[in-house]
Amino acid sequence: MSTFLTLDQNEIATHIPHRFENMMLDSIDIDRSQFLGHPHLHITENDRLHRQLFFQTLASGERVLMSAISMEIVALASIVSTGQLPPGHLAFFAMISNFSRTGHARLGDVISGEVLKVRDRGGFLAYKGNLKSNNTPICTGDVMAFYADVSQGMPAGEKKEAEIPTLTQNTPIDKNSWHKAPAMVFCDAIRHLADDFSQIVTEYSFPADHPTAQGHFPGNPVMMGVFQWTSVEDAFSVVAKHLRKAGKSGRFVAHGSANLVSAEGHMVAECKEIAVELVIGSGAQPDYADILETRRFAFKNIVYPNNRFYTILDIASIDAQ
User: Could you say which residues of the chain have pLDDT below 50?
Assistant: First the structure.
């Protein structure tokens, strides 16, 4: 049997449970002998799976793929290139690390890349990946995954306790004024914002009718892990909007770390050393954050529909570009 094969979307669907918008692969070329995969993806305004949901609008007016979604593509390509999952199993991602973004994939661009399995130890699989847009590099990053038999239920996760800071406000977020679809804004309210912008706490509840819930996963709806990561980016976006109110404008680079903590006080995820670009506009231009780098984002617990959590972001620096 040849170790080289190409899978189309129908064949990819036999390797992963992702459906509808969550099918973020069109095809993939695989070299089984090298544990190597080359994914391909082309999303347009009239995408039949409605995957344009994952695009945001920059200050330039360009619509580009949300930065965190690029690692979802890498993650799916990694699992598919490894082979079919055993019956009753799902792949869960334990960590994203060493992420670096150097560009964007515009709506209508051809996205391609490479994923390589570098380790399989103790039930955890590690991969390295990169993506290109119209053959121009846009990002690199690593993912770690594990397989779990869900025939008897979903993985329990950790019960590590975490502190929730004093919540000083409960200010709703107007998601209709953002640079992306309201469903792609992963904060519902500001619960605390330090006067010097050194800390922000946001709150989010994953709705049962979220557009991605039907395909991630059918019969077992859970919040996509990359959405947890995006909640940190969104907390930075809230800070950008408040910096405008403080008279700031232009482009900045902000650094920080974050914990995601459930309403019950358990760690949901840990984000170490994230850097984002803050774009603060004027007039009707949007204010937003865009992930540049993340050293490590570790997933600790699954977020189910109607679960509520806090994103606690500590900001170390905000510097003008």
Answer: 1
